[in-house]
Amino acid sequence: MSNSVEKNIVELIKKSEKILILPSSPLDGDSLGSSLSLYLVLKKLKKQVLVATKENIPKLLEFLPNMEVIKSDLDLSKDLVIFLDLKNAKVDKIKRDDLDGRLKLTITPSEGLFSPEDVTVEKKKADFDLIITVDTAELTQLKAVYDENTEIFQELPIINIDHHISNNYFGKLNLVDIMASSTTELILPLIELLETEMGKPLMDEDIATLLLAGIITDTGSFQNSNTTPKSFKMASRLVNLGARQQEIIQHVYKTKKLTQLKLWGRVLSKIQTDDEQKLVWSVVTEQDLKDTESDLEETGDIIDELLSNAPDARIVFLIKEKSKDEIAVSIRTLTPAFDASKIAEHFGGGGHSKAAGFEVKGKALIEVEYEMLHYLRKLCVA
Asked: 10-residue block means of pLDDT along the chain (382 residues)?
C-alpha cells in the first residue's frame, strides 16, 4: 500500500476535530478491533470521536477493551431549518396549523410585507467533519447507519480502510489492500505514522490487543489461507507491544456454551453433499435455534468445521435463517478455480476470494438453497 495514501490520511485526521468511525456489518473481531483501536488513538490526539453501529455486539467479543464506547444512536441532527429575511418587514405573530398531514405557518408582519423570496430552507448538517469506515467493502454494509443517514456520506469526506477484494473505493481516501489478512493489519502502520507525525507515543496494551484480535479472528488463529508472513510479523510486533494473545484465544476459541455445542451438532448432522460437483453445505433454521436454545451468533466459525469435514470439497457454504424472509449465506472456496467473492457478488454480497457472504430479504431458506445450488452447479460445469 502506497505510503502517500497513509500520509494523506494522517493529514486529513490532523485537520479534523469531530470524527465518526463506522464498523461494517455484521460486526466481527476485525471491524470492532479496527474501530475501537482508532477510537483510542484519536482520543489521545484530543479529537472528538464517536463509534456508532445499529448492530448487536456479538457476546463472544464483549471482552474486547472499551466496548462500552460504542453507541447505537448517531445523534445526528435531522432538523429542517427555515430562514425568514427580515429586511423588508418585522414579525408580529406566527400561527401554526396542522392541515391533513401538512404544517401551515402563518407569519403576520407588524410592519412591511413578506414575500416568498424572503423564505429559504436548509437541512442542518451533521456535527462531524470526517467519517472513517473500517472493514467495509461498500457503504450499504453499514446497513441502518447508512440507510437512515445517507446525506452525511455525501456531505463529509470519507476515509475507507479495508482489505476486501470487493471494495468499491467509495472514499475520498482509500487505504485498501486485498493482500492484508485483516483491516487491523492496515491500521498498525497508520498508528505508527501518526506517532511519528505527532511526536508522541500512541500505542498501548489495549490498542495492541484490539489490533491483534482483528488478525487472529480474520485468519482463524492463523489457520486460514489468508494468513501470510506479514500476518505473523504484525502479530509478533503486537505481542511485543503488550497485546494479550491468550485472552483473545481463550474468549474466541476456548469458550463455548452448551447451547452452542448443541447447535453445532445439529448443523453438522445436516451436512449435505453434491459429490459430482464437490459441493458441501448445511443450513441453520429458526427451529434449530429454538430447539437448542441458542442464537444465530453461536453459529460462529461452524463453517470452518464444515471445511474440516469436507477435505475434497471445492465449495462449502452455510445458509442461516435470520427470520422467515431474511437469509444469510457464508461461502468458502478451496480451489483457485472458484472465487467466493464473485459468487457472493452474484447474490448482492462480497468478500474475499476464498471467504465471502451475502444476505437476502424476501425469500425463504429453501428458495435461497435452491438458487445457490442451481447457480453453483452451472458454475462448476462451465
From this structure: 84 96 93 98 97 91 95 73 89 88 89 90 80 95 90 94 94 96 96 94 97 94 86 96 96 84 89 92 93 83 72 90 90 90 92 87 94 94 75
Give CA–CA dist 29/256, Å, rounded: 16
Phi-psi region of 352 (alpha: psi -120 to 50; beta: other; left: phi over 0): beta
Instruction: Kindly state the cell numbers that stand for 351.
Output: 468478500
Q: How many CB atoms lie within 10 A of CB 51?
A: 22
Q: What is the pLDDT of residue 1?
A: 46
The whole-angstrom separation of Cα 220 and Cα 183 is: 14
Distance CA 144, CA 289 (A): 25
Q: Are 343 and 358 in contact (CB under 8 A)?
A: no
Q: In what order do the strands lie in the sheet with 326-333?
A: 272-274, 279-284, 315-323, 326-333, 355-361, 350-351
Those residues with Cβ within 8 angstroms of residue 240's Cβ, 6 or more apart along the chain or in another chain: none
Q: Report how far residue 42's alpha carbon sits from residue 49's, in angstroms, rounded to the nearest whole number.
A: 7
* Contacts for 225 with CB less than 8 Å, ≥ 6 apart: 354
DSSP string, 179-198: TSS-SHHHHHHHHHHHHHHH
Alpha-carbon gap, residue 261 to 269, rounded angstroms: 12
The H-or-E segment that residue 78 falls in is none
193: β partners: none
Q: What local confidence, expressed as pLDDT, does residue 77 receive? A: 59
The Cα–Cα gap between 259 and 94 comes to 62
Length of the chain: 382
C-alpha cell recorded at residue 338: 472458484
Provide the pairing of β-strand 158-162 with 173-176.
parallel
The dihedral through the CA atoms of 172, 173, 177, 182 has a sign that is: negative
